[in-house]
Specification:
The complex is a heterodimer.
Chain A: H1 2-30, E1 43-45, E2 54-57, E3 69-78, H2 80-85, E4 88-95, E5 99-106, E6 117-119, E7 128-133, E8 149-157, E9 166-174
Chain B: H1 2-5, H2 8-21, H3 33-44, H4 63-76, H5 80-106, H6 109-121, H7 127-130, H8 136-156, H9 160-176, H10 184-198, H11 203-226, H12 234-239, H13 243-252, H14 257-267, H15 275-280, H16 282-305, H17 309-314, H18 316-327, H19 337-359, H20 365-388, H21 408-439, H22 445-452, H23 455-484, H24 489-499, E1 512-519, H25 525-539, E2 548-552, H26 555-564, E3 570-576, E4 581-583, H27 585-591
Parallel strand pairs in B: 1-2, 1-3
Antiparallel strand pairs in B: 3-4
Helix pairs in contact in B: 2-5, 2-6, 3-4, 3-25, 5-6, 5-8, 5-21, 6-21, 6-23, 8-9, 9-11, 10-11, 14-19, 16-18, 16-19, 16-23, 18-19, 19-20, 19-21, 20-21, 21-23
Classes of the chains: A alpha+beta, B mainly alpha.
Chain lengths: ~180, ~600
């Protein structure tokens, strides 16, 4: 009985070795000509599609801040597979005064944000669509093994806090 | 006398490491240390009391790390020499423990010496020295190997006493530095599975082993769910990868995760940031790729000749490795040629070393098993942290920072693997020579070919290992020397010790403390700049409300400040000539 079991274990060991070697060869050969996922078709997040939009209005804080920031969150589960397939993050928005607009993504309250876009006075109150590459070299590769994200951060900085600021979001999507 | 000579190998390890690491002893305290010291103020309160944090803190992720920093700070303050002496002492002590462990279980002092030296000089694992406050990582290495020693003792001599000691040292090893020791858990359970299968028909031993496993499981569960020692945190949740995406990446090759993991392993063998790679680059790396490829083919043929067909089949992994990595270069976005070549050489040496040990297992089981244990340490302690934190960025935690604390424990694993390969090759060469001399020329042609075909592997594989150990030696010594160039730690401390008592009126915010330093010494302004504000905040227990400190190094700049300062702001002006700090405020105000 013991001998039979020993034989079975040995055969199993050999089979596992053969299987492991084949898997290894497959994994290494896959890096030579990787099977890239189909590009993601427009994947909307933040429950908003034009012409409807969300408006965020800046309220002046009780104390004067040297460099105020207007931070807004949009809770929305962004599935890992969408991030894996996506190449860009896009936002269509309007700003009521000049400033810098920036987006980020959070997972457990943390995550990367992308380079801010300057909105000058000639572009205020106009619809702007900004596009960011998800895999910028100086950012964590968020679609490189990443899991799902939970929220999108929409932030405005370097604006005049003494004037009214309205950030209107018309669309946020991955592509 | 014989007893005395038995210490020579250990003394050799100590001597080599002391010579390589000596430049560290005269380094100034790195600027980042103040970040770590700020954390101890947060964790232990501004009075730095051990009773300030809750008891749970001491068994939590970073509790021991910051407690160890606090102890050294309380004992030696900002004195860099004391910090670095402790650090270098612990690194050498860890290397000695690795020497003792390897020599004991492989029954080869040569393996122990190679392992101890390889660990001690390893460049990627050097961050706990360059960032001196992380010295406890070496403590973690020591406690890991004490546990592994007790663990092996239990498995080779299973009895109740050894079982208890194994479980006790498992607990202590995790508690030494929980966040660095996470890899211990998968390592131990992989080992337990191996021994279960090995002893499945020996009922009394099996019974003890099951009892042992149950104890280890209970301890792990307590650490996860009760003490929180191995529990998750929001930070870890953020960094955790998706198993679905990992599997998809591995099977589709996009993105090239597997190549990156091979690069991390290869970094332990040839680091892309080593001074030799930086100076010579592809010119030296390219021809080197041919050697492991050639050795792999010979190894394959040797397996065929010796009818080890399964191992011959497994050696296809190493034969195809270099061509696969070379061919995938166009998909490795952002990789330079050196990274690709290093992955090819390092990865193939790692795979070949493991296959070679399996091949030689019948000849020297102890060495082979200890070597494989070394590989298991490399894999569990590299993969586990980076399956949680796989950033490809300039992030502090990225594996692409090739000198990192995450590499320190894996470098110990690689050291044991390489120690075993060198020792087993040496033993085999000696045996072959003996047989050849005995047989003289009465050897058949086929037998001679069979014997000779593995000879290049026996010679070249350890030679490559020793060559790359030499690279680490040079690069580690160069790095420590470069960090210290232009940074005279004695003068920097002299400045601080004379300067600090002169600051008699440091104001709290919103007031500003303007400090002009006319630095006419050869100490670079940057060393003064990076320490003054943080040292004042920490030593004067002002972390709750850090003072605003503005350092000025030019006289016109200082005179400009005098015009705009408010009446409440503090003004200081000093001159430092490398020996004395002189108060020149009055003199400057009078000549304004």
């Amino acid at each position: 009985m013991n001998k039979l079991f020993s034989l079975k274990i040995k055969t199993l060991g050999k089979l596992i070795t053969v299987f492991a070697v084949l898997v290894f060869l497959w994994i290494m050969s896959a890096t030579v000509s990787p099977i890239k996922p189909h590009r993601l078709e427009k994947y909307s997040v933040c429950y908003v599609t034009p012409p409807s939009h969300i408006e965020f209005v800046y309220k002046h804080p009780p104390i004067q801040l040297e460099q105020p920031e207007f931070v807004n969150l949009c809770k929305f589960t962004i599935p890992e597979i969408a991030l894996y397939k996506a190449l860009t993050l896009n936002v269509t928005y309007k700003l009521s005064q000049p400033g810098f607009f920036e987006v980020g993504m959070h997972r457990a309250g943390m995550g990367p944000s992308w380079k801010p876009v300057e909105v000058d006075s000639s572009n205020t109150n106009k619809l702007i669509t900004s596009t960011w590459l998800l895999n910028e070299a100086d950012l964590p590769k968020i679609n490189w093994l990443s899991g799902s994200y939970e929220e999108v951060v929409l932030r405005v900085s370097k604006f005049d806090p003494n004037k009214e600021l309205i950030l209107s979001i018309y669309e946020v999507y991955l592509e | 006398m014989q007893k005395l000579t038995s210490f020579f190998p250990m003394l050799l390890v100590i001597l080599v490491l002391f010579l390589v690491l000596k430049p560290a002893l005269s380094l100034p305290l790195p600027g980042v240390t103040y970040v770590d010291l700020q954390v101890i103020v947060t964790d232990f309160g501004k009075n730095l009391s051990f009773f300030h944090p809750p008891l749970k803190y001491y068994v939590y992720h970073y509790g021991t790390q910051f407690t160890s920093i606090l102890i050294v700070y309380k004992l030696f303050g900002f004195n860099p020499a004391s910090w670095f002496i402790i650090d270098v002492f612990l690194r050498i002590a860890a290397a000695v423990v690795i020497y003792l462990f390897t020599a004991r279980w492989s029954k080869s002092k040569l393996a122990g010496v190679v392992a101890g030296i390889f660990f001690g000089v390893n460049l990627p694992g050097l961050q706990p020295t360059t960032r001196v406050a992380f010295f406890l990582v070496y403590g973690a290495v020591i406690s890991l190997f004490i546990f592994l020693d007790r663990w092996l003792k239990f498995h080779y001599q299973p009895n109740g006493k050894n079982l208890k000691l194994s479980a006790l040292f498992f607990t202590l090893a995790i508690l030494t530095y929980p966040i660095r020791m996470v890899g211990t858990v998968p390592l131990v359970f992989m080992g337990e599975a191996y021994w279960l299968l090995k002893n499945y028909n020996n009922k009394p031993i099996l019974k003890l082993q099951i009892k042992h496993i149950l104890k280890l499981i209970t301890i792990t569960l307590l650490f996860v769910f009760v003490t929180g020692t191995l529990s998750s945190t929001p930070e870890l949740s953020f960094k955790r990868i998706s198993p679905t995406i990992l599997l998809t990446s591995l099977l589709t090759g996009h993105p090239p995760v597997i190549t990156a993991l091979w690069l991390f392993i290869s970094n332990l063998i040839i680091s892309p940031v080593s001074s030799i790679v930086s100076n010579t680059g592809a010119a030296i790396l390219k021809p080197l790729t041919l050697i492991p490829l050639f050795l792999s083919i010979l190894f394959f043929l040797s397996c065929i000749f010796r009818k080890k067909f399964l191992l011959a089949f497994a050696s296809l992994t190493v034969i195809t490795f270099i061509p696969f990595v070379a061919a995938s270069s166009q998909n490795l976005e952002g990789w330079d040629n050196n990274l690709n070549l290093i992955t090819q050489i390092g990865g193939s040496i790692f795979i070949l070393s493991n296959l070679f040990l399996i091949y030689m297992r019948n000849k020297n089981e102890n060495l082979a098993e200890i070597g494989i244990l070394g590989s298991a340490i490399v894999l569990t302690f590299i993969l586990f942290p980076w399956l949680i934190s796989p950033q490809l960025s300039n992030n502090d935690q990225s594996a692409f920072n090739f000198i990192h604390r995450y590499y320190t424990i894996p470098s110990a694993g690689m050291a044991i693997l390489f120690g075993s390969v060198v020792a087993i090759s040496w033993d085999s060469l000696k045996n072959n020579l003996r047989i050849l001399l005995k047989l003289k020329i009465n050897v058949g042609f086929f037998r001679l070919i069979k014997g000779l075909i593995l000879l290049p592997v026996l010679l070249c594989l350890p030679a490559l290992i020793m060559y790359f150990t030499y690279w680490h030696m040079i690069s580690t010594n160069n790095l420590l020397t470069t960090i210290g160039t232009g940074a005279d730690a004695t003068k920097i401390e002299l400045f601080w010790n004379k300067f600090e008592p002169l600051l008699n009126d440091i104001k709290e915010p919103p007031d500003t403390n303007y400090i002009y330093i006319n630095n006419i010494s050869d100490v670079d302004d940057k060393y003064i700049k990076e320490m003054v504000a943080d040292r004042i905040t920490i030593s004067r227990k002002m972390a709750d409300n850090p003072p605003k400190i503005s350092l000025i190094f030019s006289q016109p700049g200082f005179l400009e400040i005098l015009k705009k300062k408010t009446s409440n702001d503090s003004i200081y002006a000093f001159q430092f000539d490398g020996k004395e700090v002189i108060d020149i405020k009055e003199k400057l105000l009078n000549t304004k």
